[in-house]
Design goal:
By secondary structure, the protein is of the alpha+beta class. The chain is built from 10 helices and 11 strands.
Length: 493
């Protein structure tokens, strides 16, 4: 059985949902397009059939019917009826014609191949009267609900064509012809069989070609979602860790020192009171003891000022939206130097970059400096900040005791931990490299890509002296040791 991490399962779930949605939409598109294509085919065939029926109707009206509609036919003369009937039945034999009617302008049927209709009158529809008066032709699927079509209901559905023409006396007449629709439906089915499969096949191929694109887009969305969640988690954990660190340093350092200052000042006050109350001839408190107590209080206050300065510098560096990495890290370097650490800072000009990239450089540089000062006291520390090719980097190197990188990818002593720094690097598409080995020192390097055409970030004044004071060669001067150190890489660009 293949084991998948929860993160990988979530990614696969997002991709699977996206592909399932793509499949559903594709099937719906196939159905809609297929139905639309079938409707279009039916309408095309119907339009073509109606045009052909109109053409046949015009031929029958002008060439067969009109020359035989005489005044005698108006009088229902049997000979006139027979002459027209012989011509029409000859035309109907073997054709798709079902029925022919001849209407006078007053709505009377002058002729029909069904003699029961001859002589009956019905009101003409506006469309039929327009064709009668203006000439031309009109066609449609028959409406069997009309009263004059009662005898055509046995035909079922048919094509009905009205043609306006003139009789031998140049009086307007209307010739109505019914055609079978069996061939029409056969043509519709044949066209649907030819067109719809081609359209559906083309759409299916297009859908299959879009599957890789859908997979790529879904994977990209899943990756962006993972990165967003990682950045949120990083921000929450970093904020919590920072609060715990500040609280711990205040409690264990500044607060205890200030309590000691209070005790020292109390003792000094008592000694001064004793000096003031010394009786003539008595022995006053020694001045050296008073000065020693005062120097102790002064030293504690000075140490607390340095500690608070470091804390405020750390908080300034956390302001990644406006902070310049050189200035922010310079504040931290100054604080470490004031505490006696040997720190060298090598700074190059950085290219413009997004605020998130500057924040990553500050955060990794800050944590690496803090860890070096804490875990390698007395070691020489070098901070290198610069750019090469299309990347920017920060490197912190110390020649301290080193450690095993495999055991350090997690929160350490309440600090943010290398795993969170790796997440910070991954969140900006960067790379975090850690090299260390017991007895061989430690090097931490973050490399972030520098997107092109980025606006120059606003430079902050805080800590500019540190950035300006320390300039020199690129980070290669503080190179990673060339020996076969243990190497751990977290995050990829």
């Amino acid at each position: 059985m293949i084991f998948r991490s929860p993160r990988e399962r979530r990614r696969l779930s997002v991709v699977a949902r996206a592909l399932a949605q793509h499949a559903v939409v594709s099937v719906m598109a196939l159905v809609v397009v297929g139905a639309t294509a079938a409707i279009v085919c039916v309408r095309v065939v119907q339009s073509q059939a109606l045009r052909q029926a109109e053409s046949s109707g015009k031929t029958i009206a002008t060439n067969i019917v009109a020359p035989l509609v005489t005044p005698e036919l108006y009088d229902l003369d049997p000979n006139a009826q027979k002459a027209l009937d012989d011509k029409i039945r000859l035309r109907m034999d073997g054709s798709t014609i079902l029925r022919i009617k001849v209407w006078s302008e007053d709505g009377r049927i002058l002729y029909s191949d069904d003699t029961r209709l001859i002589g009956q009158s019905y009101p003409l529809d506006p469309d039929d009267r327009r064709v009668l008066e203006e000439g031309g032709a009109d066609s449609d699927i028959s409406d069997l609900s009309k009263s004059e079509n009662s005898l055509e209901k046995t035909f079922g559905e048919s094509l009905e064509v009205y043609v306006g023409t003139k009789d031998t006396e140049q009086r307007p007449i209307l010739v109505e012809t019914y055609f079978k629709v069996g061939q029409l439906h056969a043509d519709e089915a044949a066209l649907i069989r030819r067109i719809v499969p081609v359209v559906l096949a083309a759409l299916l191929v297009l859908g299959l070609l879009l599957v890789p694109l859908a997979y790529t887009l879904a994977s990209r969305v899943a990756r962006y979602e993972r990165e967003r969640q990682a950045m949120i988690r990083l921000a929450v954990e970093a904020s919590s860790a920072e609060r715990r660190r500040v609280a711990g340093e205040l409690h264990d350092g500044v607060i205890q020192d200030l309590a000691g200052v209070g005790y020292a000042l109390t003792a000094l006050d008592a000694q001064i009171a004793g000096l003031a109350n010394t009786e003539p001839g008595g022995s006053p408190p020694p001045i050296g003891a008073l000065r020693a107590t005062l120097r102790t209080a002064q030293r504690l206050v000075h140490d607390d000022v340095l500690a608070l300065r470091e804390l405020t510098g750390m908080q300034y560096a956390a302001d990644s939206g406006a902070a310049d990495p050189a200035a922010a890290l310079g504040v931290i370097v100054d604080g470490l130097r004031d505490e006696g650490a040997a720190v060298e800072m090598i700074v190059q000009d950085l290219p413009p970059m997004p605020a998130a990239h500057r924040a990553a450089l500050i955060r990794v540089g800050r944590e690496a400096l803090r860890n070096a000062a804490k875990h390698a006291p007395g070691a020489n520390i070098t901070l290198a900040l610069g750019a090469e090719a299309d990347t920017a980097y920060v490197t912190v190197t110390d020649d301290g005791p080193g450690f095993d990188p495999a055991s350090a990818l997690g929160p350490v002593d309440g600090h943010i931990g290398l795993a969170l720094l790796a997440d910070a690097a991954e969140g900006v598409g960067g790379r975090l490299d850690l090299r260390s080995r017991p007895g061989r020192g430690t090097t931490v390097k973050l490399t972030v890509p520098v997107p092109a055409h980025q606006p120059q970030p606003a430079q902050s004044g805080g800590g500019a002296t540190a950035a300006d004071r320390y300039t020199g060669p690129p980070a290669s001067s503080a190179a990673v040791p060339s020996t076969a150190d243990a190497t751990e890489t977290a995050g990829t660009g």
